[in-house]
Amino acid sequence: MLSAEARTKLREDTYAAYQQYVNGGLAALLKFMGLDVVEDHAQGALVWDVDGNEYLDCLGGYGALSLGHRHPAVVAAVQEQLGRMPMPAKIMLSRPLAEAARMLAEITPGDLQCSFWCNSGAEAVEGALKLARLATGRTRVVAALNAFHGKTMGGLSASGREVFKAPFLPLVPEFSHVPFGDAAALERMVDEQTAAVILEPIQGEAGVIVPPAGYLARARETCDRVGALLIVDEVQTGLGRTGRLFACEWEGVAPDIMTLAKALGGGVLPVGAFIATPKVWEVMLPNPLLHSSTFGGNPLACSAALAAMRAVQEEKLPQRAAELGAYVLGQLQEMAGRHPGTIAEVRGRGLLIGVRFEHEDIAGLVIAGLVQRGILAAYTLNNPTVLRLEPPLVITREQLDRVLIALEEAVAQTAALLGG
């Protein structure tokens, strides 16, 4: 282990490099939150910094670490493929890609079958939007206010928060937005010129917003009425996070196109994909290179994805998320009752949980208080009043109890500090 002096120098050098070469604003934000430490290694739901301090990861890579850090099966699959062929020749058939695509078709709902593999959720959304326009011959897309679909130009156009969009105007034209969860507003906006409706089953970055029961089913009916396609963005909710393998299954809805990423890589490699029905995919057949990616579908990524999909099912992680999520939500509801005026609302499904505070300053101080107690957490991107709890699905109940104790202490500490 490094000496105390060497560890101090490592921290200072890393922080200085962030300031000068990465993002000075991000460095300052991490320092304010008490996170100007240097991560060193991790396993399961635990992370250690270079000083040997242990943290319980309740952020989970913003949903990418559903299997936790360094899941043995995923690591082993990647190591085996690394010794065989890390990157593809690109003009031959790839067995890892074929196997991953087959399994994805087997586990996704409805007639979803043909997939394109990429490197991130934003890329998956870009491809899905292109496919929808190509398949329908239409250009209009309807999305939801406060949605988050990535920060590429197409993803931003579908996203619904102006603070991220305004600096990059004009974006891709013919995107319209309606309130999330308002089925009637969606019906009024969608017409015969609409190529697609793109929705998250639960809005994650908006603050973990669960729509009214039947909303996604109504969206499916609305699309069918006018021949528009339904794109369900499962980048954050997919692969067990909400207590079902895919969140759209809570309403028995099968989309025309689904986007995936985050947990698809098993917490080991970045992987994204979009998958569509054969009917929608037909337009890709005449020109199979109309949409492509140099690194998308590489053998390492596909090996990770295949191992991740198997592990999620074999370890029954959706059921685990449902059971643990119900427990945590119940405990948080009781906590909210003990802290009126501080905690405004608790919401979520499975292990995608949001705790909304009365003001974003409270949320920031609570998050800092959690970090002081060895818990990693953050607020949601589109709503800084909401603390997100999105731990690995392999987290234990005992570890969750540790989170709940720390959160209660941080909330009480913050309320006292603010005179609440």
What does this structure look like?
The chain is α/β, with parallel strands linked by helices. It folds into 2 domains: 33-63 and 316-417, Aspartate Aminotransferase, domain 1; 72-314, Type I PLP-dependent aspartate aminotransferase-like (Major domain) (Aspartate Aminotransferase, domain 2, 3-Layer(aba) Sandwich). Helix content is 42%, strand content 17%. It has 15 helices and 15 strands. It has helices at residues 4-22, 24-32, 60-63, 72-82, 95-107, 121-136, 153-158, 162-165, 183-189, 215-226, 278-281, 299-314, 317-338, 360-372, 397-417; strands at 39-43, 46-49, 54-57, 114-118, 140-144, 175-178, 194-199, 229-233, 257-260, 272-276, 343-349, 352-357, 375-376, 378-380, 383-389. The strands form 3 sheets. Strands 4-10-9-8-7-5-6 form a 7-stranded mixed beta sheet, with helices on both faces. Strand 14 and strand 15 (383-389) form a beta hairpin. Helix 13 (317-338) packs parallel to helix 15 (397-417). The longest helix has 22 residues, at 317-338. It is globular. The chain starts with a helix and ends with a helix. The mean pLDDT is 96.
